[in-house]
Amino acid sequence: MRKEEGVSRGGLFWVALGDGPTVVVLHGGPGADHGYLLPQFAILADQFRLLFYDQRGGGRSRTGTQRPTWRDHVADLEALRSEMELGPMRLCGYSWGGLLGLLYTLEHPEKVARLALCSPAAPVHTYRAAMTATLRERAARTQALGLSGFARAVAGYFAHPERARELTPFRVQMRAEQSVLESLGAYDLRSQLHAIKQRVLVLHGTEDPIPLRYSQELVQLLPNARLLVLPGSGHVPYIEAPQIFFEQLRNFFGAQ
């Protein structure tokens, strides 16, 4: 598998895997890095060139600030796209990266060809309270399984918590996360979503702590979107439902 890596002029560490049409992958967080999407996402590198990068404030990116705003993240993505001379992008946003994909598309609609949103953070801030409540309820279940360390910390995001051991460990930089959340405030993008005309694929598990109803509403508000519900999957379908998850992404990004 072909692999490239480097650092952008703005200090973003990036990695590209494979050959073919470029798909830019936006990791979750905020404040995390791209590494926890691997090795699973690398399966797509036989058909696409996957471009990952560590967002400002996390991972190996060195941008001069550990307290970014959502506008910084949008600007960073546009700067990276321009520097790497990418045309309208195939964007794949996971979790917070899905919300970032929406924010970027609203700011730069002509720079996006199509958009996949995987277990996306909702376009309205109220999902956070519901997610937090679900994770709190699942904490006792996790303790009963005897998980420890990183697996125990993330088990609540899984429909099958024992599979948390399969997730590549990562660290969230709390200052960067809090800074982005503060900049978003009590956000609500729903009234703006009609402006996104691109084809959008939304993938959401029935057991995701982010309630499915948010993605159902999202698809209703987007003019050209389709929802794929993943039964029995939590927030990490690339581990819990990999066959259908990656099959759908292949079809979506590979179609002309």
Structure described in brief:
The chain is α/β, with parallel strands linked by helices and 256 residues long. 34% of the residues lie in helices and 18% in strands.
Explain what the structure shows.
It is a single chain. Helix content is 34%, strand content 18%. The protein is globular, with a radius of gyration of 17 Å. It is α/β, with parallel strands linked by helices and 256 residues long. An 8-stranded mixed beta sheet has the order 1-2-4-3-5-6-7-8, sandwiched between helices. It is built from 8 helices and 8 strands. The chain has a single domain, classed as Alpha/Beta hydrolase fold, catalytic domain (Rossmann fold, 3-Layer(aba) Sandwich). Strand 7, helix 6 (212-221) and strand 8 form a beta-alpha-beta unit. Helix 1 crosses helix 2 (96-107).
